[in-house]
Amino acid sequence: xxxxxxxxxxxxxxxxxxxxxxxxxxxxxxxxxxxxxxxxxxxxxxxxxxxxxxxxxxxxxxxxxxxxxxxxxxxxxxxxxxxxxxxxxxxxxxxxxxxxxxxxxxxxxxxxxxx
Length: 115
Description:
Acetolactate synthase, DUF6497
């Protein structure tokens, strides 16, 4: 699988990896950020927040977990973000639709952590 390969999610929307960031500290400690391109979340794109949230949970479980399973020390938190267009990390784009959710990893599962 390459970054350009589509990743399957429950909604069926087109999802590809933008990048993974692991060298920026998070508020709780070691944090990995998995950033995905999801044009379907754009205004009028047909994917609402609840549907996107289900996709983020699925991405955490099926895509993120295998990639952090052998990381030592393990991340304290994983952030899954969806964006309808590429936005450089840490920059704002008022025209972009973006969703972010944080998860901890316990017992081999992603546990949603409310911001």
